[in-house]
Amino acid sequence: MNSTRRPFSRRLSWLAVLVFATSVIQAQAQEQVIIASTGGAYDRALKKAWFDPFTAETGIAVMVVSATNAEMRAKAAAMVKAGNINWDLYLDGEIQAASEAHREVTEDLTEFCAAYTARPDLARNACAAGGALLQSTATLLVYRKSETTRVPETWADMWDLAGLSGRTGIPELR
């Protein structure tokens, strides 16, 4: 996707938390990589666009484990704590991948990413310490006029949850 179409900072980007290429070395010994994803149609699309071509080119099978994003983060933390890591990759959001909690359970990819910083065909932050960009989507901030008397006019207003009435869909990322 051409990152100049819209300001990248407005898009939530899903990241491959550990970069596929770094897993290949380990995977060649075991002839498979294990990737945690959210399942369903999304996994079928990943299989067709990424996993099947990768397997065809390398002979390395891609095994997918399905879980919610929260389950993936919890399982990754538990695997690191136990010293028994059996996933090669898991998918996480850009916001989550930049968090301290994420960095505590994943490898720092800063050195790996250095080779990709000058590539004109990649978004500026296609590869970062917390992961590699897999795709870009949009994040929308909306509110219901019928549920609040205070109309958010700035980002600060939107994140001021104490000043909002009604339910929110804002994730807690602590």
From TrEMBL:
Q: Please give the Pfam families that the UniProt record associates with this protein.
A: SBP_bac_8
Q: Which SUPFAM superfamilies match?
A: Periplasmic binding protein-like II
InterPro entries reported for this sequence:
SBP
Q: Which domain of life is it from?
A: Bacteria
Q: Which residues form the signal peptide?
A: 1-29
Q: Which UniProt keywords apply?
A: Periplasm, Signal
- Name this protein carries in UniProt: Spermidine/putrescine-binding protein
